[in-house]
Amino acid sequence: MDSRQFLGLQPTHNPHRWVLPVVQGISTGGGFLFGGCGLGAAVAAMEGTSGRKAVWATAQYLSYAKPGEVMDIDVTLAVHGHQITQARAVCHVGDREILTVNAALGDRDLEENGQFEKMPLNIPKPLDCKERPHVLDWSGTISGRMDQRMVKGREELEELDGTPGDGQVLLWSRIPEVIEGVDAATLSILGDFVPMGVGQSLGIRGGGNSLDNTLRIGKLVPTEWVLLDIRIHMVERGFGHGLVHMFAEDGTLMATASQSCIIRFWRDMPGPGPSGKAKK
């Protein structure tokens, strides 16, 4: 299975229009399309229409798509040059716009290259790490289709006691169903974890809803697992900001994803609330 099959993305007779049936398997436990899946579908659609690989893509999340709905993805190739295509995708359910994605796609034959951000040292192998615990039943959702192992982070609910951390979470992640290699769409899905990092960094029983996600893609190499090095920069005015470095198992930095999110607390989950006091 490749990433398009995993998402359920379908072409139409119009090469500039794609459709994404929204099902539980690409949705959150809250019952709406996972933001990384929306970005991944838009990126895959723009790659399919342009015939080029994504270099950069940024999504602005505007509304929610729910299981049972069908999201149309309309691709516009604004500039289609010799080496680079500048494109956008408008993703909508009927007249309701869900997200808008702008992207650059292409390749340039340039000899110079370099990687200056390095994977953290002395990282244990994925299978030597504990599975990321789930406080809710996420079976059948996008979270249930991922295999994630905690390297650095709070593994127990009781650890989310309102005590701030240092802003870093390390997490091995893979999508077992995608066996045809990591691509831009796969990294779009795996990179949507700044909201999770916000909850971990604040020590709260919560996370957030993404306002945006910007994916920057470098060298893709064969890898089963991807290390998510989540860095939360700041939380102010009810919003969190941070990024995710995505490393292959051999240390190659394949992509980065930066996000802002609206801070949200989990429902019906006793623990530190907005005022720092335990919820009843």
TrEMBL record:
UniProt cross-references to Gene3D superfamilies, sorted A to Z: Acyl-CoA thioesterase, double hotdog domain
Ranges for domain Acyl-CoA thioesterase-like C-terminal: 127-263
InterPro entries (alphabetical): ACOT8-like_C (IPR049450), Acyl-CoA_hotdog (IPR042171), HotDog_dom_sf (IPR029069)
Pfam family, one: 4HBT_3C
Protein's name according to its UniProt entry: Unannotated protein
